[in-house]
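Budget justification aside, the reviewers requested a transparent look at the raw inputs and outputs of the sequence design task funded under Objective 1. We therefore reproduce one unedited record. The lines immediately below are the structure tokens for a 859-residue chain.
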């Protein structure tokens, strides 16, 4: 037992923690504070009297402070100085002899921790010293309390027994001598040894006065209980070992352990819980001492959730014994405090169960007393849990071994692969049905025979295969595994078949005893490999003449694409050689930057099993932009590779896209001049109309016709006429803005669409500028000629609000300009419209008159 002899202070007492063995903190004069491993602290005084060494209990810390303990030491020393034994004086005080107030003996007893009481049965009041009130948990400032107040301090479970003993004393049948518990206001309980007797009766023998003393015996009770429980635990461990030898079923074994743990009031309750497959919840597999509904209503877990913070969950999660010393003061146990009070336990302990090299559950026990689990008891519980875990692991190992042997037998019989074993001399020791079926032998024809002579005697070409060169023989003798796929086995009927076999050496107690061989018939695989080689050769020939790029690439875990195979047509598609592309890993760097997102969406980000088609622009090596159509299929990579595998094809569609663009252009433009045609002009008009409506401005449509253009074609030819048209377009471009539209309608007719015109004068300036530019001489094929034109003008909104209406009116105005002598312009007005209608009607009537013979000749 360790001993510390330095003077004591309150701070030093608080800072000293329990150890594995009891610790003495000495204060001098034979007094010390005994610190037990469970944390309890008791004041003791060692002294000698009558030649014998004795020990006097001075009280419990911190109820008895350091100063109070020193006062009690002084009182004991004073009794010793008078030749009186403090322990004997205390015992005399317990005998209940009436003590006069202020006597030195009563004072000494009080200082030594004894409570003295005097009960007047007529008044029902109890006179006492301060120590009695302190032990009873009452007000120490009062010298008297009522009998009812004293009875109320008794632990409820002990009240009936104490009252029965007092009644027997009052009846004169016995001296009152009883150990019982007192419950203090803070919820703690202590054990007291209470002793007294009736010292005064009336003439009829009725009791009038009873005196006695009491002292705390909590430690003695705890020590006695600990010893009894230790013995019971040792008995249980011995009984468990006997049960283990008897090989009881596991659930029955755990149930018997729980029953033994609650026998003779060793513990209030006990149960064994195992962790479920989810690794979180804990289920009870055996229990004793519980009401039927207790564990079924509690969710017990071993994770970090609130339900996993109890002793059982903590023990499993942390792998250590978890102790709850007092349910009423342990804040971590607060969620279960009400349930603990209901079921009558104050402390609990859970120790983990280990089996199979891991924690599988916990053994949990409960006690009615607080601080019931000292180090020795915990060690015994851990020993019990360890024995149980060892047995569970041992039984599981035996069961696993039997199951493994049975599985091996079933596997051997059910395996489609041929399996046989040989000893160190090459003699067959076992063979499975698949091997016999492949070779055509019976078991009796193979067991005990030389395997090499039966099935492995010749090479595929028929040459003898010497036993000394046999790979299986080498594996057996050298203790090395062998894998071969280039040999054949021979059947009983003399035919052979290609095999792939594996030979593994077998050891017993470290000694090489033979080998186990498994083989498969690879005839079909050989045929498939030959067919695959032929197919790959055909595919290689086809891909070598294909103009499309075919490739395969791996996608790494980082998302990078790395081409590992491609056809040689890469330069035809990209303008780069295959080596140049593969040096970059993939061809994404050749994609036009604006198409990166399309590439990633349709190629880089494909999930396994997805296909995609997309068109991309490629920046060729010569700087040109090529168009390709990419086809991609994503597949999962092999098991030993991370990422996906992509299979793709790239088709050059540049010429097709150019042709499509040309067709699209010609659908909306004039072939000769490249100007918008009437279809595109109509669309431009709708846009101009919308802008004019928003800006409240004008739109002008100018219908322009070259004067005498037909004469140029007739005299100089259509080539010269085309040149004249192109020159006219060039000059018209100089007269208009970029936002205006010039459209060729066919022949020598053009339409100019002027957007957002502020006033009519602006249109006049543009028309005059056009007449001036076109009037300048033009030299074509050595011929100088003057081009002129006639222009008709229609305005929005004055002349109309739709395309066709304005075009018709601009056309009318143009013809009016021609009638006016050409090389001029005219704005449309209603008079022109009337004249045009009258002219049209006159023409129609003349045609009809001719048809109807209505014309007459007059001289």
């Amino acid at each position: 037992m360790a001993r510390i002899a330095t003077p004591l202070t309150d701070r030093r007492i608080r800072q000293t923690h329990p150890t594995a063995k009891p610790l003495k903190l000495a204060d001098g004069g034979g007094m010390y504070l005994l610190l037990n491993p469970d944390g309890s602290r008791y004041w003791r005084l060692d002294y000698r009297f009558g030649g014998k060494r004795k020990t006097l209990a001075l009280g419990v810390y911190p109820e008895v402070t350091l100063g109070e303990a020193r006062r009690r030491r002084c009182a004991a020393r004073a009794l010793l100085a008078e030749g009186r034994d403090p322990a004997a004086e205390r015992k005399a005080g317990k005998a209940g002899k009436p003590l006069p107030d202020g006597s030195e003996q009563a004072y000494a007893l009080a200082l030594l921790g004894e409570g003295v009481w005097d009960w007047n049965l007529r008044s029902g009041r109890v006179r006492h010293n301060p120590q009695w009130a302190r032990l009873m948990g009452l007000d120490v400032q009062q010298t008297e309390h009522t009998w009812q107040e004293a009875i109320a301090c008794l632990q409820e479970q002990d009240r009936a027994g104490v009252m029965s003993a007092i009644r027997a004393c009052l009846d004169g049948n016995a001296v009152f001598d009883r150990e019982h518990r007192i419950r203090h206001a803070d919820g703690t309980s202590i054990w007291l040894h209470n002793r007294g007797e009736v010292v005064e009766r009336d003439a009829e023998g009725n009791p009038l006065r009873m005196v006695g003393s009491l002292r705390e015996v909590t430690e003695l009770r705890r020590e006695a209980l600990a010893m009894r429980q230790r013995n019971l635990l040792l008995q249980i461990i011995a009984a468990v070992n006997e049960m283990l030898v008897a090989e009881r079923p596991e659930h029955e074994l755990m149930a018997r352990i729980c029953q033994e743990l609650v026998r003779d009031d060793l513990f209030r309750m006990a149960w064994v819980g195992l962790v479920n497959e989810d690794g979180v919840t804990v289920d009870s597999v055996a229990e004793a001492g519980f009401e039927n509904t207790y564990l079924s209503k509690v969710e017990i877990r071993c994770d970090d959730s609130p339900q996993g913070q109890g002793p059982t969950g903590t023990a499993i999660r942390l792998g250590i014994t978890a102790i709850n010393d007092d349910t009423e003061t342990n804040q971590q146990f607060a969620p279960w405090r009400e349930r603990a009070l209901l079921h009558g336990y104050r402390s609990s302990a859970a120790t983990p169960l280990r089996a199979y090299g891991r924690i599988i559950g916990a053994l949990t026990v409960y006690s009615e007393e607080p601080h019931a689990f000292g180090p020795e008891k915990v060690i015994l519980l851990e020993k019990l849990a360890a024995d149980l875990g060892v047995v569970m692991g041992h039984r599981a190992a035996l069961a696993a071994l039997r199951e493994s042997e049975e599985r091996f037998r079933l596997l051997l019989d059910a395996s489609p692969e041929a399996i046989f074993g040989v000893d160190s001399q090459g003699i067959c020791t076992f063979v499975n049905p698949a091997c016999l079926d492949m070779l055509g032998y019976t078991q009796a024809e193979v067991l005990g025979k030389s395997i090499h002579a039966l099935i492995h005697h010749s090479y595929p070409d028929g040459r003898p295969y010497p036993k000394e060169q046999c790979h299986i023989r080498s594996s057996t003798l050298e203790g090395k595994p062998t894998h071969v796929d280039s040999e054949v086995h021979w059947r009983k009927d003399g035919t052979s078949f290609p095999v792939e076999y594996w030979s593994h050496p077998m050891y017993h107690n470290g000694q090489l005893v033979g080998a186990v061989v498994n083989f498969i018939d690879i005839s079909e695989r050989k045929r498939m490999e030959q067919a695959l080689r032929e197919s790959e050769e055909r595919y290689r020939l086809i891909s070598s003449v294909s103009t499309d790029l075919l490739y395969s690439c791996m996608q790494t875990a980082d998302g990078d694409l790395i081409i590992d195979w491609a056809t040689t047509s890469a330069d035809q598609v990209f303008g780069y050689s295959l080596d140049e592309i593969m040096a970059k890993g993939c061809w994404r760097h050749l994609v036009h930057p604006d198409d990166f997102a399309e590439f990633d969406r349709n190629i880089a980000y494909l999930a396994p099993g997805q296909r995609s088609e997309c068109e991309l622009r490629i920046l060729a090596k010569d700087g040109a932009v090529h168009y390709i159509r990419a086809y991609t299929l994503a597949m999962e990579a092999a098991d030993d590779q991370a990422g996906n595998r992509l299979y793709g094809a790239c088709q050059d569609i540049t010429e097709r896209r150019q042709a499509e663009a040309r067709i699209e252009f010609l659908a909306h433009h004039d072939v000769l001049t490249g100007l918008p045609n009437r279809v595109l002009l109509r669309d431009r008009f709708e846009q101009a109309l919308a802008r004019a409506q928003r800006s409240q401005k004008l739109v002008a449509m100018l219908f322009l016709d070259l004067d005498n253009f037909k004469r140029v074609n007739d005299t100089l030819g259509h080539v010269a006429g085309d040149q004249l048209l192109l020159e006219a377009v060039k000059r018209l471009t100089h007269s208009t803005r970029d936002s205006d539209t010039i459209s060729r309608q066919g022949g020598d007719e053009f339409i100019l669409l002027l957007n957002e015109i502020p006033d009519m004068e602006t249109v006049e300036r543009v028309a005059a500028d056009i007449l001036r530019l076109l009037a300048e001489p033009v030299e074509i094929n050595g011929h100088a000629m003057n081009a002129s034109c006639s222009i008709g003008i229609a305005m929005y909104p004055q002349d109309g609000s739709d395309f066709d209406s304005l075009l018709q009116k601009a056309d009318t105005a143009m013809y009016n300009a021609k009638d006016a002598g050409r090389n001029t312009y005219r704005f449309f007005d209603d008079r022109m419209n009337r004249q045009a209608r009258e002219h049209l009607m006159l023409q129609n009537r003349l045609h009809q008159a001719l048809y109807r013979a209505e014309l007459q000749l007059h001289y």
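Confidence is low (pLDDT under 50) at residues 1-5, 94-105. The two ends are 166 Å apart (CA to CA). Computational costs for records of this kind are itemized in the attached budget.
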